[in-house]
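pls design
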């Protein structure tokens, strides 16, 4: 799919500062040139990992929260699950925001009937342990921080500096229904529609 022409056309129509009041909400990714995301979008991905929709969800500017959300499934094991990367954002210019990644994790796991039968067979009485395992899988939410402590050499006794993993994001077009942006460096272009 070649989208460079239309996105350049929309960007040309929006030769002004972004109206950040339109940013809050859930945006579904429909196209990207980002090398770290394109492999996820391969439609005929072989088992065992299937990727569903990819979203970016922004809070209002005052809160400055953003989540990158990837829906996935693993046939025979998981009906669905969600990978989520949480970040903070702040406005750097009329068209640029800074993303500071905070943590990444997995949540909203829904196991398949086959896996549930394997863990707690229907022909046997379910024990307390079976119930606990099934409950733990249903409620599982695991997140790891995406911040690295700077070595002590670079810290004073009165500060506890942390380095946030982040990047700048250039918003080139935003209206009620469409968001086009690009990550600085070799991040690529992203086209979203409001969900």
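designed seq:
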């Amino acid at each position: 799919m070649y989208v460079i022409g239309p996105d350049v056309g929309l960007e040309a129509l929006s030769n002004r500062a972004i109206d950040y009041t339109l940013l809050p909400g859930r945006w579904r990714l429909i196209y990207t040139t980002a090398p770290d995301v394109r492999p996820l979008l391969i439609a005929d991905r072989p088992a065992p990992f299937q990727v569903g929709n990819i979203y970016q969800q922004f809070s209002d500017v005052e809160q400055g929260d953003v989540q990158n959300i990837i829906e996935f499934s693993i046939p025979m094991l998981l009906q669905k699950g969600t990978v989520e990367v949480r970040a903070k954002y702040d406005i750097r210019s009329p068209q640029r925001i800074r993303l500071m990644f905070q943590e990444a994790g997995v949540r909203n796991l829904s196991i398949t009937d086959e896996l549930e039968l394997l863990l707690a067979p229907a022909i046997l009485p379910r024990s307390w342990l079976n119930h606990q395992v099934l409950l733990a899988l249903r409620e599982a939410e695991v997140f790891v921080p995406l911040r690295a402590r700077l070595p002590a050499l670079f810290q004073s006794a009165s500060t506890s500096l942390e380095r946030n993993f982040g990047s700048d994001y250039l918003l080139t077009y935003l209206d009620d229904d469409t968001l086009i942006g690009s990550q600085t460096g070799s991040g690529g272009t992203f086209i979203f529609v409001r969900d």
